């Protein structure tokens, strides 16, 4: 995926850091499904869609919701009118989002390459840069995080260890003590087995 951005600069951490070397880009984009989000903080349709995309991304990557973050990256390609507007928009979005710097001509290159004529648009790419979905906005609206599994399979990134903490249809926030409770449950089960074994030995 880094090949798409060879010689380009992406902004990370809400524009605090620049990533421009191939090694840096490989580290954050390698072996991931990549979303290119073409949008604007001022566009009414984008203002409706952006919170859905934020929730979609968080539910697939935040440890609060998943046992293990999915193989998913996102690059924001801005149509904001000013750098301040772009910065304000990104501050309200997840820290893991990357962005094409404001005013970079590469933005127009991406629009032409992926035939983006209106926003919001979400282009879904395989790690090798091939297009999985030309515009996934409606799919994300309709299916939510469930559509990631389809993309994961299309990208041949089937990761047997990826597992949602809760079923997509019945999201409930996981307790902070959940890992402790699960560990205690395992210990209790071991203790129970040991006690049964000892009882069996005594009665024989």
TrEMBL record:
Protein name: NXNL1 protein
Source species, domain of life: Eukaryota
Residues in Thioredoxin-like fold domain copies: 31-131
InterPro entries, A to Z: RdCVF, Thioredoxin-like_fold, Thioredoxin-like_sf
UniProt GO cellular component terms: mitochondrion
GO BP annotations listed: photoreceptor cell maintenance
């Amino acid at each position: 995926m880094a090949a798409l951005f060879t010689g380009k600069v992406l902004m990370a951490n809400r524009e605090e850091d620049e990533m421009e070397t191939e090694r840096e880009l490989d580290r954050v984009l390698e072996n991931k499904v990549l979303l290119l989000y073409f949008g604007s903080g001022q566009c009414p349709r984008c203002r409706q869609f952006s919170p859905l995309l934020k929730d979609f991304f968080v539910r697939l990557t935040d440890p609060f919701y998943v046992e293990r973050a999915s193989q998913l990256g996102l690059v924001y390609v801005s149509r904001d009118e000013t750098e301040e507007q772009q910065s304000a928009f990104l501050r309200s979005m997840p820290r893991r989002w990357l962005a094409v710097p404001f005013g970079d001509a590469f933005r127009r290159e991406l629009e032409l390459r992926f035939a983006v004529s209106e926003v919001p648009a979400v282009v879904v790419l395989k790690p090798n840069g091939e297009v999985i979905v030309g515009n996934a906005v409606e799919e994300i609206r309709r299916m939510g995080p469930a559509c990631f599994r389809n993309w994961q399979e299309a990208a041949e990134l089937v990761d047997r260890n990826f597992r949602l903490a809760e079923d997509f249809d019945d999201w409930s926030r996981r307790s902070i003590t959940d890992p402790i409770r699960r560990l205690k449950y395992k210990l209790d089960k071991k203790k129970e087995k040991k006690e049964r074994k000892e009882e069996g030995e005594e009665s024989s």
